Every structure is written in structure tokens, then in C-alpha cells.
MATE family efflux transporter (Bullifex porci), 460 residues
Amino acid sequence: MAIISKRDKEFREEVLTTSKLIRLIIKVCFPLAIFQFITQLFNILDTLMASYIDATAVSTVAYMVQLQHIVSAIGGGLSVAGSIRIANFYGKGSYDDVKKEISSLFLLTAIISLFIILLIPFTPAILRLTGTPEGFTNSGSVYFMIVLVGIVINFFNSIYLAIEKSRGNTKVILKLNLLVMIVKLLLTAIFIYILKGGINYIALATLLSYLTLFFLGPIRLINGEDAFSFSLKAASLKWKAIGPMIKLSIPTMIEKMSFSFGKALVNNMSATYGETTVGAAGISNNMSGLLTGIQTGIQDGGTSLISQNNGAGLFKRVVKIFARLTTIEFIIGCIGNFLYLFLMWPISYIFASSKGGFNQEFQNLIILIFKYEILGCFLLSFCYASISLLLGLKQTKLVMIVNIFRVFVFRIPVIHYFTTYTNLNAEAVGYTMMISNSLTGIFAFLVAIYALIKVAKAKE
């Protein structure tokens, strides 16, 4: 019989009984918010280092990031599904099921990782099949090969972080990722500024930072006696064991893949205004990501809290947590927009500077896109709380619908209209992001209310 520590027992009791919900949300979610902020810094560092090389390099990295996200969606889907089910079993007090879920999840991930490793030699052909411009294929093939290895390592890291998130060890997640960020920062600085390396060295630095987390995190879970550990004896690839996990993860995988594929299509359409527009749009996305990353961290922690309470059958408590999450997310969105009024010029100045000097035209392009994109983050705030609720209630199909609408209804048709039927220039990309983000926030909130009504009726 699987056991849990005294600390895990106390945390479960707090999640299910405390009346101080705001305090609980801050305790669980804010370390994850900082973690997501750090993750966005990773993305910004990649783009910043690439911009030091040249404008073509930054556009290559910006383009490859979306393809990277498509592959990462596999591990992301599994880790999201695993996290939901682990938190649900934890809330129920079914500790044997927690151990079986974790063990089976790791085994399934290992098999998928092996398949991806076998695809690495075919990277140039895969890039061409996805419609990658030939210039990006030539300059980014080796970069993407290294990225694929990093993605495989990060599959296991994502699962480990999902496990720690489920048991409320968000401070552990924060500390580990602070260390990883320092490793990433030092290696990238050495490779780019001292060794004068190209974008391949950016990918290598990321890979080595992922390996650091791998040896500090996932490896520690092997053969432990605790319920939150991996055991080959507890692992199973039978459909009874992995079927519910796969069913729950497939909508998330489709959602993440389609979302990233859609963004890659938007990048292609943005190239109508020139290749540097793709880079400027990527930088704008990274800049807004410092805000939305924090909101994603709140979303991740909120999902765990809602899932545990849902597993314990505490529906009224789920509604209260959702209400407080919505308020917190909106306040963060408002504060972030206000701060960016003062910060967008100095931040964009950094990105527009390279070893060739400061590029005023490139900075103006970044600002032109960003000043419209960030306005959409007001209403997008409602999306993050809504996704927390939907995931916590195991409504991954509804999450998939929200994100498919976000890209294929609210984004691609809009930019297609701007590029085809108007005389707008690069600002069309900013308009598109503002419109799609605003409509997504409204739509996600309506879907969340629908899910609450549906679950409430089912419990009557």
C-alpha cells in the first residue's frame, strides 16, 4: 500500500478545509507564477541573444519556437492530464492510484521519447513538410535537432513538475527553476558573447539547463516508497491503466498542437510584411508573455486546487476558488498593462540592439505591434481563470475548443482579412493579437460558466 508523508497529509487537509482561500491561492499559485515568469525570461533570453547575432537569427528562433511547441504539446498533454488525475486521486485519498498513475505516466513518456529521438535525422525534411521557408530551414535545421533532444528531456521534467505541483511543492519548483535559469543564463552568455557562437549554441545552452533539472528532479523519483514516486512494478501499459490518461490528454495535445500550428501559420502570414516582422511579432509575444506567464502560473496552481477539491466532491468550494482566481487574474492583467506603458520602450530598445548597433526601425516595428497586442491582455485575463476551472473539472475537450477558436476563428481569419483586404502594414499583426485575445477571454469565460452549470445540474 502506497504511503504519503506527514507534510502531504497536512497540505491535503489545508486544500480541502481552509476558509482562507486567497491565502491558499497565494501560497500555491504565486511560486508557480514566478516560475512561469522565469520560463518567459528563458524565451526572452533566447530571442535577446539571437538579436545580438542579427535580425535573421531572431526571426529564425521566433519561427522555430512555434514548431518546438507543436512537438512539446505531446509531453504537455500528458503532464496536464497526469497532473489533473494525480491531484484528483490525491484529493480522494486514493494513494495507490497516485503511485500507479505516476509510474505508468513515466513509462509511457519514455516510449514516446524514443520515437521522437528516431525522427531527429529527418529534421530538414520535416521542416520542409511543415512549410518552413527555405531560409529558415537552412539556418535552423541543426538548431531544431538540438531543440528536439531538449524537448525529450523536458517531457520528463514537465511530468516531475506536474507531480510536485499536485502535492503543493510549488516552492521546490521555484527554487529548481531559479537554479536552471542561472545555468541557462551563464551558458548562453559564454556561448554567444565570449565564444561568438550562433543560434545552435542557444539551443545547446537550453538543452544543458534542461539536463540540470532532469538530474535534480525526475531522477529523484525513481524507486521511492512514497506514493509520489516511480516504481516499475506499479507501472502498466494496459489500456485500463493508461486509457483514461490518454483520453484526457488527447484534447490537450490537439489543443496545444493546433494552437502552435496556428501561430506558425500566423507567422507565415506576418511574413507578408517582411521577415523582420516575424521577429518583431515574436519579440512582442515574448514581452507580453512576461505578463501572461504570471497569469499562466496562477492558472496552473488554480487547476491543482480545483482538481483536488473536485476529487473530494466539494463543488461549492470549487466555485469559490474559481471566483477568487478570476478576480486575481484580472487585477494582475490591469497592473501589467499599466506597467508596460513605461516599460515597453526600454525593453524594446534592448531587443533592437545587436553587435551591429541599435536598429531604430526594428524597435519602432516592435512597438507598433506590441502596443496593440498588450491591450488584448485585459480581457484575456478571464481566460486563465476559466482554463483553471475547466482543467480542474477534467473538461479538457472544452479547453481544446476554446484554444481552437482562439487561433482558427479569432486569429487566422482576422489576419487573413487584414493582409488581403486592407492597406495596413505591420500594425495588422498587433490588431490581430488584440482582437483574438479579447474575444478569447470573453469566449472562455462563457464556456466556464456553461461547464459550472452543467456540473451543478449533474450533481442535483
The CA atoms of residues 370 and 457 lie 43 Å apart. Residues 55-92 form the longest helix (38 residues). The beta strands are 353-354, 357-358. The first strand starts at residue 353 and ends at 354.
